[in-house]
Amino acid sequence: ASQGMLYEIMQDRAFDFFDTRANNEQDLSGSGRGSFLTEMISEQRRWLLRVMTQLETGNLKIKKGNYEKAKSQLDTLYAELMKQYEGDKKQAEESFYTMHIYKEGIEVTQESWNKFRDALAKFGVSRYKGTTLDHWKAWITHIRSKQLETLSGLF
Questions:
Q1: Could you give the CA distance from residue 90 to residue 88 in angstroms, rounded to a whole number?
Q2: How far apart are CA 63 and CA 97, in angstroms?
Q3: Is 40 within 8 Å of 112 (Cβ atoms)?
Q4: Are 125 and 94 a contacting pair, CB within 8 Å?
Q5: pLDDT tens digit string along 95-148?
Q6: Which of 8, 59, 121, 122 is a Cys-bridge partner for 54, taking CB atoms 3.0 to 4.6 Å apart?
Q7: Helices 103-127 + 67-84 axis angle, to 10
Q8: Residue 4's closest CA among 139, 133, 134, 122?
Q9: 3-state secondary structure the chain
Q10: What is the spatial distance between Cα 65 and Cα 104, in angstroms, rounded to a whole number?
């Protein structure tokens, strides 16, 4: 596939992930739901634009990274997060004080992120010579780990 096609696929996967994350990994209860959703999606799209701009101008370099190590750390965080929220959606909805973030939504978001990770890595290798899938996957996996750490702190 051409670089342009790989970029379009990556962008589509990124936007899918951003939308899924905004809908599932923040508390959308209450009257501010619409603005919270819009702001998180916009924030993530601005992040992608900044990253692409930094890469194109040489201000961001993707360095060697150990993907297996990064993936292991992410898997550990993910497993801990899943344990933090053992209850089901019905139990959470019955509690007035429970945040409206559900295990099922986090799982769907992680699946969406996996697709984004892979598409970003394929695009990155095609566009930025000297990088590997391992480099890209390690880099973006560290970012996802930080997202899950933040989410873990909410429960």
A1: 6
A2: 43
A3: no
A4: no
A5: 544 557 888 999 999 999 999 999 999 999 999 999 999 999 999 999 999 999
A6: 59
A7: 160
A8: 122
A9: CCHHHHHHHHHHHHHHHHHHHHHHCCCCCCCCHHHHHHHHHHHHHHHHHHHHHHHHCCCCCCCCCCHHHHHHHHHHHHHHHHHHCCCCHHHHHHCCCCCCCCHHHHHHHHHHHHHHHHHHHHHHHHHCCCCCHHHHHHHHHHHHHHHHHHHHCCC
A10: 30
Task: Give the tens place of pLDDT for each residue, 71-99.
Answer: 999 999 999 988 887 655 555 555 544 55
Task: Please give the Cα distance from 119 to 110 (Å, whole number).
Answer: 14
Q: Write down the residue that tokens 């990064």 correspond to.
A: 70
CB 106 within 8 A of CB 86: no
DSSP string, 26-51: S---STTHHHHHHHHHHHHHHHHHHH
Contact 112, 62 (CB under 8 A): no
